[in-house]
């Protein structure tokens, strides 16, 4: 699955976004949202719970902004804005999927803040959500943060409990 997103969606011109970001911790992913950590196995979707899309952590989102989990290139923002992918310099490919079954909203309740192809720092705001709207539709805001090319990592260790702050707290440690 190496370079999965670049192969699937093509390489795009890179830009760089500067914002109130944190220094990306070495070999770690930070929380993409403020909320409570849950084990992937508790995400109410069998693809994520069964680690079929990758391995990592999940956050029950309590805030309204979803940020980059690490320094890297924003490879893709789904047209429905409910998910985005990143490629890190070390070759790891990440997927952040905001909520469960949120693709059904066709982008309503999501505002994209950064264009695909942009180099971002950990903590850069990527998507703003209308939390009340999404929850009002009866959808879960369980948000997986996944390493999709797990074969590129020697180990992936998720933090599965506790409250986290977007862009600050470590949710996944890995070794490449």
UniProtKB/TrEMBL annotation:
Tree of life domain: Bacteria
SUPFAM superfamilies to which the protein is assigned, alphabetical: Duplicated hybrid motif
Keyword Transferase: yes
Assigned keywords, A-Z: Kinase, Phosphotransferase system, Sugar transport, Transferase, Transport
Protein location: Cytoplasm
One family name in Pfam for this protein: PTS_EIIA_1
Record-annotated PTS EIIA type-1 domain positions: 45-149
Protein name per Swiss-Prot or TrEMBL: PTS glucose transporter subunit IIA
Organism: Clostridium saudiense
């Amino acid at each position: 699955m190496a370079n999965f997103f670049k192969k699937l969606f093509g390489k795009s011109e890179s830009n760089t976004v500067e914002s109130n970001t944190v220094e990306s911790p070495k070999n770690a992913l930070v929380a993409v949202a403020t909320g409570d950590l849950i084990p992937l196995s508790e995400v109410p979707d069998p693809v994520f719970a069964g680690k079929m899309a990758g391995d990592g952590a999940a956050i029950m989102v309590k805030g309204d902004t979803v940020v980059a989990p690490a320094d890297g290139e924003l490879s893709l923002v789904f047209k429905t804005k409910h998910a985005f992918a990143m490629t890190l310099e070390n070759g790891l490919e990440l997927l952040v999927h905001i909520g469960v079954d949120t693709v059904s909203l066709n982008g309503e309740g999501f505002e994209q803040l950064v264009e695909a192809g942009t180099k971002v720092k950990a903590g850069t705001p990527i998507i703003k959500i209308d939390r009340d709207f999404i929850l009002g539709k009866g959808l879960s805001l369980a948000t997986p943060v996944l390493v999709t090319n797990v074969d590129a990592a020697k180990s992936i260790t998720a933090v599965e409990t506790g409250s986290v702050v977007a862009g600050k707290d470590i949710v996944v440690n890995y070794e490449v």
